[in-house]
What we know:
Blueprint: E1 10-19, E2 22-28, E3 37-38, E4 41-43, H1 50-62, E5 65-80, E6 86-101, E7 110-116, H2 128-136
Parallel strand pairs: 1-6
Antiparallel strand pairs: 1-2, 1-4, 2-3, 2-7, 5-6
Amino acid sequence: MNDKTLRSPRVAVGAVVINHHRILLVQRANPPGQGDWAIPGGVVRLGETLAEAAEREIREETGLSVKAGAPTYTFDLIERDGNGQIMFHYVIIDLMADYKSGELCPSDDALDARWFSPEELKGIKLNEFTRKFLNQIKFLP
């Protein structure tokens, strides 16, 4: 998807799911951040609450069922091309979420999906915003 045709930012959500001292991350299949490991999520649809969008996106991207809670982290993701034109602009709101059920199975939006302990995050290509958030909550060693 390319946001060049948009005239305003898009609202997106992520779900921060930590279960048994491990965090759920997906390896992004598409830009922006293609190939990076990040908190799973996506665009909020018209008429959806933030929690509904987070729960749907987790189900679609990972096959897991979660219960989304309160927003915990918000940031702008803006990417420009070589000419300075905006390619992507998302306002992303990450919500804490509790794992309920399901077997991890990445969809076509994710190259992979895994549970990571803090130690397992060393050496993987984390999305810069995910790394900043995980440092903020002291999840990274």
